Amino acid sequence: MRIIFLFLSLFTTVFAMEPGSKIFVAGHRGLVGSALVRVLNENGYHNLVTKTHSELDLTDQKAVDHFFATHKPQYVFLAAAKVGGIKANSDYPVDFFTINSRIQLNVLESAHKYGVEKLLFLGSSCIYPKHAPQPIVENSLLTGKLEPSNEPYALAKISGIRLCQAYNKQFNTNFISCMPTNLYGPGDNYDLKTSHVVPALIRKMVEAKRSGAKSVEIWGSGKPKREFLHVNDMAKACLFLMNNYEGQEHVNVGTGKEIPIGALAKLIQKLAGFTGELKFNTKFPDGTMLKRLDISKIENMGWHPEVDLVEGLKGAISEYERQNS
Length: 325
Ligand code: GFB
Hints:
binds guanosine-5'-diphosphate-beta-L-fucopyranose, two-stranded parallel ribbon, single chain, alpha/beta, 43% helix, six-stranded parallel beta sheet
């Protein structure tokens, strides 16, 4: 497979970004966007354009048009999105559907109109069919029913991927997409009502240890399995794809390894030093039971995850403790 890829790449020239290329990181204060800014800076890219939400509302088409007309970025990482954990997705389906749809409609339209050289769009592993064969390969998209707890988010993100392909087909743009697995790391959202499982469990365990609580509540049965990728690895994958990949099909980004939520909870409990009990509350939903990506496509191109889960969690726990001491 690797040999086939190397052979094909001899005939496909992918132009990498120059150190001075003007790069717009949309969503630079979010988990992925902030990691992208760090990784781009570390790799010598110094001409970044960023706007906070109050400076530029990406759901406002006129504002987005004006921004692109003024700044004319050459490259765009579209890391801005309305994201959240299983509960936030169930509680705010309209927000997840409409905000994500608007952001991508506006940014892709302006990126095309103002001649962006290349754009990377981010999907999510949760938009694959609920019962997709595991590990999930790229062409499983749209082959079956979605997980009900996040269907509105999934429909928006699937449209985003398909819209990138449509622009490429109709206007010969260079819009690529990737499909990240569940992410965690510096800059995560620790709000217990809207967060994903890793930051939620870090906060619950650290706070329980501090307060001397007897138990911590874990949502669901603990049986679902998830794959977790450190956001620094994700940002490196985004840069790698921007500089090395061209193609209509999205690319999975993950570790290829899954862990049951119960085992994840025990691991975070141990790393945070909480000695009480874990209580599984099955009144909360499990969501999809298994979600693991097949990452052979990106690995065959030469990218590999680097951050081990235990080390990544230790770093995230220390960050939470430092910021909330
Ligand atoms: O991370 P999470 O909210 O998202 O939940 P999904 C993963 C699993 O952890 C579920 C369980 O089975 C939860 O029930 N869990 C246990 C907890 N304790 C907790 C807790 O305290 N907080 C949270 N949040 N979960 C999301 C999608 O699905 O994945 C999004 O809804 C997004 O759209 C994201 O794509 C990557 O993996 O279930």
